[in-house]
Amino acid sequence: MSERRIRVLLAKPGLDGHDRGAKVVAHALKEAGMEVIYTGLHQTVPSIVKQAMQEGVDVIGLSIMSGAHVPICRKLMSMVKKEGIGDVLVLVGGVIPNKDIPILNDLGVKGTFPGGTRFEEITAFIKENVRH
Amino acid sequence: MGVATYIKDEKDAIKEVILQSGIKVKPVYTPEDLERVGFNYREDLGDPGEFPFTRSIHPLGYRSRNWTTRQYTGFGTPEQTNERFKLMISHGQTGLNVAFDLPTQMGYDSDDAMAEGEVGRVGMAVDSLRDFEIAFRDIRLNKIGSGLTINAVASIMLAMYQSVAEKFGYRKEEISATPQNDILKEMVGRGAWIYPVQAAVRLIGDTIEYSMRALPRCSPVSVCGYHIRESGCTPVQEISYAFEIAFAYIDEVVRRGYEAKDFVGGFTFNLNIFGNLWETVAKFRAARKLWAKLLRERYGVQDKKALFLRGIFGGGGSGMTKQQPENNIMRGAYYALAAALSGGQTTALCSFDEAYTIPTERAALLSLRTFQILMDEIGLRDTIDPLAGSYFMETLTKEMEEKILEEMEKVEKIGGMVEAVASGYVQREVSKQAYEYEKKLQEGKVIKVGVNKYTEGVDMEVELHEYNEAWARQQIDRLKELKKTRDGQSVKGSLKALERAAKEKKNVMPLLVDCCKDYTTVGEMANVFRDVFGEHKEPSIF
User: Cβ contact (<8 Å) for B105 and A15?
Assistant: First the structure.
């Protein structure tokens, strides 16, 4: 019996439109055998959570370059819990200074992947940490 | 990041060099190469300032005119931006390059729910003319030209710039603004789009048509290969897509009954510099020549000045790395050298901390000093197009030219750039290239110092430009105050007139100027367009 493929929602929250990173990771996750749903740009946190629920994803990956990663993640994590999908693995990529990584972890973001992270690191992390 | 692919033997000797554009570089070039590519001085180069302008658009190059330097500046409140503008000018900067925050770029006022957490973050917040009055206070708008990094609402911001200049007592005929105003590249790369493709291109047509009559010293469009390159395309694709975008805007205005010769001289280009030095210089030489040739062939443009490929060559953001950030100071210097060897008129350099954030004061000044050292100490003003006549450079320039034409043909087969963007063709091509490049980097097939070679294990932290929540509050307070004190009836009337023009497909520019002078907000004007035009939907590319 074949294993169910891991479903990932890749999202670009907020107004920032730099999506090179998100698209490159989308290619990489697909090549690693995952199903990738890309939200496109300018998403609000409620619309991301709604799509995550509708699509029944295992992972939400946020790509943030604007520097607003902390307020966005705070909002998303509280909403994810409220909607009862707190077991979804939440990851963040983009321009993330090192000093902010512990803050994001405290909020419940499991993995932080600054620009330039190796693809296998991301895919291995997802496979290890996704709900089984 | 743009470096070539090197194939080496077991002794680390280079067997093959493949440029990002797919051209193979030979170990040595001779007169036979020039013969092979059919090089001819008169046809392929011409003297500087003479058709096809491969060498330079000016007969005396940097001898007659130094670079215009325009570091990207703007953050927080208009007050802070004004201070930074003055600082950069006092240090010898000769033009401005205005950064707007994301809510402004996306047509939201600072008090809009969509603006939360973003007010003043990546540029200055502009809600109304009041903000421009503060930001441009004491700047001589008849002497200093301004690049405005704004696209979806460029029409609004150009009207705002005219309004502030007139408020300060300048005539609109003497001001020089270059709004970026290139929405097609936003849809491919930078992502700050609002309206659907057709409506967005129409707004650009309005700004071009209006500038012809009312703003003769403004360059209404700056076509940006830059951001498409940042998004992952090759140097050849950068030029091909930029030209196809420019043609889409030209065609929009030609459809209104004008001739290209009457307005195309106002077009400028924003093109990228990073990666392989030779490929970069050849790219610009080929681009200058092709632009002149194509305008002549396709649109019958004869006037010399209208054939110039003018623009800002610089930046190089994708070349900068987060790892070992101080290396970016050196990279920047070499990119600036490439810009000088390429003959750009205006330049800006990404600062060394820009892989993290908008530049700190110290970093922005270092970039400015880099240009000053090159021009005043090293000798780059001595002679024009110093690489001309090199067997290698001339061969490469011819090869780049051919490749650019090949890529252009692919877009034209789809029906031009509007179609190619609406269908997602270009976005797909670019993201594919970005992925392939990233894979090569991770596999070590292309080398980036400090990233996949000569790494130091620990990342150095740089001093970051800090964001302050108080800026947003200050901005929102000012907006509230404005809405209380302005003439509400007049604003209503101006917005109604704007809506009518938008619906009736009249040129919206004069009405936007009326709106701005009434202190109508950017969000109010942008929402009129949202209601009339709707919003862009991204084509699915996965």
Answer: yes
Distance from C-alpha of B113 to C-alpha of B115, rounded to nearest angstrom: 5
Choosing among 3.20.20.240, 3.10.129.10, 3.30.450.40, 2.40.50.100, the CATH entry for B5-442 is: 3.20.20.240
Size of interface A-B (CB pairs under 8 A): 92
Q: Which of B103, B232, B538 minimises the CB distance to A40?
A: B538
- The pLDDT > 90 percentage for chain A reads 83
ipTM value, please give it.
Answer: 0.92
Tell me the β-bridge partners of B69: B347
Strand partners, A64: A94
Q: Residue A22: inside a domain, yes or no?
A: no
A114 touches chain B (CB under 8 A): yes
Q: What is the pTM of this model?
A: 0.94
Q: What is the pLDDT of residues B150-200, one digit of tens each?
A: 999 999 999 999 999 999 999 999 999 999 999 999 999 989 999 999 999
Residue A41: give its domain's CATH number.
Answer: 3.40.50.280
As for how many domains chain A has, the answer is 1
Q: Say yes or no: B85 contacts chain A, CB-CB below 8 A.
A: no
- Indicate if the pLDDT at residue B276 is higher than 50: yes
Residue A2 in any domain: the answer is: no
> What residues does each domain of chain B span?
5-442
Q: How far apart are CA B153 and CA B25, in angstroms?
A: 43
Say how far apart CA B403 and CA B408 lie, in whole Å: 9
Cβ contacts of B268 within 8 Å, gap of 6 or more: B178, B219, B221, B222, B223, B310, B311, B312
Do residues A59 and A29 touch, judged by C-beta distance below 8 A?
no
pLDDT at A2: 54
